[in-house]
Write a structure and sequence with these properties.
single chain; about 180 residues; alpha/beta; six-stranded parallel sheet; 8 helices; 6 strands; globular
Length: about 180
């Protein structure tokens, strides 16, 4: 497994280019982080050119579209670099699988992470993302403890049963509590 893994689509809003820039910044700081990119999409050509331009061809590999759980196994830390997102399934799936992760502080991601705000970084900030990656890699025990806690949080708040109950409660409140 590489140090870092990304699982998702290669579209501008997903921020994969920002992740590549963060890896380049870490390399410039002497931290030879490796990255696996799992997915496909309209930006794959631009991402490959960016990797070439930044001299990261030895540090970054593409494995194509794979099932999320397989993709998670290809890195020690999942990074979700989104510029914008609502409630990304990849975050819920990774948390349910107990995968150590850091993610952009956008959309519904903070709701999923709950009290674990230390694992969130400002979206569109290569520096903040690089710092979050570095912290998680340098302290894998803390990242693993957080992953275990997030896993428990997912089963309490984001399981199918919990989400169905939440929707039904919302409808009950909207229609019967007038």
């Amino acid at each position: 497994a590489t140090d870092v893994v990304y699982v998702g689509e290669f579209r501008h809003i997903k921020g994969t280019d920002l992740l590549i820039d963060a890896v380049a910044r870490l390399h410039a700081d002497g931290k030879k982080v490796t990255l696996t990119l799992a997915g496909d999409g309209e930006e794959i050509g631009a991402l490959k050119a960016q990797i070439e331009r930044l001299n990261l061809t030895e540090a970054v590999r593409f494995i194509g579209y794979v099932k999320p759980r397989y993709g998670f196994s290809k890195g020690k830390l999942l990074v979700v670099p989104s510029r914008g997102d609502s409630m990304p399934y990849v975050v819920i799936e990774a948390a349910a699988a107990g995968v150590p992760m850091v993610a952009a502080n956008v959309g519904g991601i903070p709701e999923i992470f709950g009290p674990h705000t230390e694992a969130l970084f400002a979206s569109n900030s290569v520096g903040a993302m690089a710092d979050a990656i570095e912290s998680a890699i340098e302290d894998p025990t803390t990242a693993q403890v957080r992953a275990k806690s997030l896993r428990e949080r997912i089963f309490i708040h984001f399981s199918q049963k919990a989400m169905v109950e939440g929707v039904l409660t919302g409808y009950r409140n909207a229609f019967f509590d007038r």
